[in-house]
Design brief:
The structure is a single chain. The protein is built from 11 helices and 14 strands. With 337 residues, the protein is of the alpha/beta class. The protein has a 12-stranded mixed β-sheet with strand order 9-10-11-8-7-6-5-4-3-12-13-14. Strands 1-2 form a two-stranded antiparallel sheet. Helix 2 links the parallel strand 3 and strand 4. Helix 3 runs parallel beside helix 4. The two termini are 30 Å apart. It binds S-adenosylmethionine (SAM). The site of S-adenosylmethionine (SAM) has 20 residues, from strand 5, strand 7 and helix 11. S-adenosylmethionine binds next to strand 5, strand 7 and helix 11.
């Protein structure tokens, strides 16, 4: 525990992993209602007084980068693009030194309008969530008729230089699990890098079941009906996606087997929720409250120390396969995906 006392030590956990990749949720609200994430009527949103202000977010980012060794910042939510002040938060993050890599995970709605400003502010990359390129399937999954907005948002991101544009897709049995090759062909045609993510037990409705989940093996088998996939020669490192060359390359596809092929041993992530709680794992059941510390006058050194303590207790693995596994109390939209 010696390590916790040093004012300059990084975000270490007791298994020797170091947190360098910070996911920052900027809001728990979203303008889509993806069935595997949120109920049609939405959720009880966080009271706005509990949501960190822009200045509070930037202060925590400054501590993370300058004192805790965070190198990558990914904004998420909820839907981060609906946060007023988002472009300014990006610009202020880009002024931190050492300058972190800055990315956003978004559903792509509204990206058409803001992509140039975000690129100018210093955003490096976007991951856009898109589970289908069929308008009717999009409407069924997201409960909104907005496929066109997302498609235009993707094109605008690429045109603004936010490349390579990455796409995250979740396959749902009976909805889009027959569309994996079609989605990959669409992405390859446009130069977008597609990654499929196994559905995780993080929905507000607790509707996830292991049997209904489309596994990484199934995803790969479906893709191999149409494409030749070979393991990518690059080192995977801490990347969650297993990457494959498609038809010998240069196009690629990734599969993130969060449930059946967990990568916790190499995890370098830590999460900050929109209401200022640190989570050392997506599936953590405890959070550490930095907002109260911030608002009661704690100085940067004390906040950094609280953050290190929160990280130290990170579990070895998420344990989804363990019979004692309990879904976290907060859904994905509130934790930050
Ligand atoms: N609104 C943004 C977006 O759509 O990308 C950011 C937040 S969203 C929660 C982040 C990612 O989490 C999306 O790619 C979404 O598909 C994914 N997601 C949501 N619920 C999930 C679940 N239960 N299992 C796996 N991925 C999930």
């Amino acid at each position: 525990m010696q390590v916790l006392a040093s004012p300059t030590s990084p975000l270490l956990d007791s298994f020797g992993r170091v947190g360098t990749d910070l996911r920052v949720s900027l809001t728990d609200r979203c303008n889509l209602r993806c069935s595997y994430c949120m109920p049609a009527e939405g959720l009880d949103w966080l009271p706005s007084a509990e949501v960190l202000t822009d200045d509070e977010v930037v202060r925590l980012l400054t501590i993370a980068v300058e004192q805790l060794g965070v190198q990558q910042v990914r904004f998420t939510g909820g839907e981060p693009l609906i946060r007023r002040g988002f472009t300014d938060i990006v610009a202020r993050t880009a002024r931190l030194r050492p300058r972190p890599h800055i990315a956003v995970t978004t559903n792509g709605m509204g990206l058409e309008r803001v992509a140039p400003a975000l690129a100018a502010a210093g955003l490096d990359r976007v991951n856009v969530s898109l589970d289908t390129v069929r308008a009717d399937t999009f409407r069924t999954i997201t409960r909104r008729d907005r496929l066109g907005d997302v498609v235009r948002g993707l094109a605008a991101a690429a045109a603004a230089g936010l490349a390579p544009v990455k796409i995250n897709a979740v396959l749902l049995r009976g909805h889009n699990d027959d569309q994996a090759p079609e989605l990959l062909a669409w992405c390859l045609d446009r130069g977008y890098e597609l990654r499929f993510i196994e559905q995780m037990p993080l929905d507000a409705q607790h509707g996830w079941s292991r049997e209904a989940m489309v596994t990484a093996d199934e995803i790969l088998a479906a893709l191999r009906t149409t494409f030749d996939l070979t393991p990518h020669p690059d080192e995977r490192g801490s990347a969650p996606a297993e990457l494959f060359l498609v038809n010998g390359g240069p196009g690629t596809v990734g599969v993130i087997g969060s449930v059946t092929r967990p990568f916790c041993g190499a995890c370098d992530r830590v999460r900050l929720t929109a209401d200022g709680q640190i989570r050392n794992c997506l599936f953590a059941r405890e959070e550490s409250d930095l907002r109260t510390a911030l608002r009661s006058g704690a100085d940067d050194t004390e906040i950094a120390e609280r953050w290190r303590r929160a990280m130290w207790t990170k579990r070895a693995g998420h344990g989804i396969d363990d019979p004692t596994f309990l879904q976290p109390a907060r859904p994905m939209s509130a934790i930050g995906g």
